[in-house]
Amino acid sequence: MKYKIHREGTNILILLAVVLLALNIPVWLFLPPWILPTVLTALAVLVYGFVFNFFRCPARMYKGPRKGMAVSSADGKVVVIERALEPEFIGGEALQISVFMSPLNVHANWVPVEGRVAYVRHHAGRFYSAWLPKASTENERSTIGIITPEGHRVTVRQVAGAMARRIVTYSRVGDEVGFDEHLGFIKFGSRVDIYLPVDSIPLVRIGQRVTGDQTQLATLPIENKTH
After folding, report:
1. Residue 52: how many CA atoms within 13 Å on its side-chain side?
2. Quick check: 148 and 166 in contact, CB under 8 A?
């Protein structure tokens, strides 16, 4: 699989490289012997490697069935599969599937279903741990509502966590979206909540590791019963 650096990380990586070089050059010039400078430089390389790894962005193509399918928006671990109220876009009960992303996961977010973006809204909020249930409603978050060709309403919620301090959302109202497209990016750890029609059939289990734009989360109902 091919990787590139996500555009959200380019400026950060350049600035970090300049800062680390500015800190390490004087260390080698003015702090003999070589043991201390070597240790500090090794730490700098580790820090840069961690941030570089965080902003990696794999080139992926979904090859499975598309009609009536919901695919994971994020890399990480499934932490929630349950019925829940989603009043913001669906306006009622839904099947919630949530994926937690650790700082070691890819943090690009993909579109989970094919359809048309009908709703986008950013909410200011707190930065509780993304593991907590209240994070979905009280944390900094962005909500994207998609209507599938069958008329199903699907909500994708990007949720900030204790470390994540910036959510980027690319989708705009009126966009026609599909698999393989980037929905957004969450910086430094968080979660994505996906709300599907309540009678969707989950294909994953709690604790399962999933891959964005690759792992099938659930099958949607054949008919839209809400209209």
Report:
1. 10
2. no
Angle, in degrees to the nearest 10, between helices 10-30 and 35-54:
180
Set 73, 136, 190, 200: catalytic member: 190
Residue 53, H or E segment: helix 35-54
* Domain extent listing, the chain: 3-58, 69-219
Q: Is 190 among the catalytic positions?
A: yes
How is residue 57 written in tokens?
């962005």
Tokens linked to 50 = 């961690």
Residue 11 token pair: 């400026």
Instruction: Using CB atoms within 10 Å of the CB of residue 21, give its burial: 0 to 12 exposed, 13 to 18 middle, 19+ buried.
Output: exposed
pTM for the model: 0.78
* CATH class given for the domain over 69-219: mainly beta
- Averages of pLDDT over runs of 10 residues in the chain (227 residues) are 65 80 78 76 82 76 92 94 95 96 84 96 71 65 94 93 71 94 81 95 97 96 69
Q: Which two tokens stand for residue 183?
A: 């929905």
For residue 193, give the 3-state DSSP assignment. strand
